[in-house]
Structures are given as C-alpha cells and as structure tokens.
C-alpha cells in the first residue's frame, strides 16, 4: 500500500492548534462625544499553512462603567494561508469601548488532513 507523503507527515508531527495560528487585532477607533464607536476594524491574521474558511469574532460594546451594552458576532470568510483580511465593523451609536475575541475557527482543508 502506498501512502501519500503528506499523510505520513501529519502522523509524525503534531499540528499546532489553529487558535495559536490565527490572531486578531483592532485598529484605533473613534468614540463620539456622547458615545458611539466608529471606524472600528479588525485585522485577522492566518499564520497557518491552511486556508481558513471562517473565523467568528465576538465584539462587546461597553458603557463608560465597563458594563456590556451589546454583543455582536462577526464572521470573516476565506482567509488564505499565511495571509490576513480586514473586517470593517458598522458604527455603533452607543458604547465607548470595545472588547473582542475569536469564538471559532474553521478550516475544511486542515480537517481533511487530520481525518485522513
């Protein structure tokens, strides 16, 4: 039986979790005099060797006291290996600060290799 070389490589080396290979960073954003967040965007960086099909980002808009005003989920699709994409977030009429984190990362290409 002939086994393709990439199958042997996957078996011999442990792949790093995608969570350690995909990152996000916000750009500076504007806050209005009476609140409201505008010009908010995120750079999503894929440092892996695989195309990322989807990254979900949870963004919390905060009140001046730090309490959560609202939470939104945004998706970034089709991020090529070793590349980045920018997500522009629609302006929010309220809130003075944002907190964010990645909630999920999906890669069919990587899943196929792991399940081969």
Strand order of the largest sheet: 1-4-7
Question: What is the alpha-carbon Rg in Å?
Answer: 18 Å
**Strands, total number:** 8
Number of helices: 2
Order of helices and strands: HEEEEEEEEH
Structure summarized in a few sentences:
Helices cover 14% and strands 47% of the residues. With 116 residues, it is mainly beta.
Task: Map the helices and strands.
Elements: H1 5-12, E1 22-26, E2 30-31, E3 37-38, E4 41-46, E5 52-62, E6 68-79, E7 83-88, E8 97-106, H2 108-115
Antiparallel strand pairs: 1-4, 2-3, 4-7, 5-6, 5-8
Q: What does this 3D model show about the protein?
A:
Helix content is 14%, strand content 47%. The chain is mainly beta. It has a three-stranded antiparallel β-sheet with strand order 1-4-7, with no helix packed on it. A hairpin with a 5-residue loop joins strand 5 and strand 6. The longest helix has 8 residues.
List keywords for this structure.
single chain; 116 residues; mainly beta; 3-stranded antiparallel sheet; 14% helix; elongated
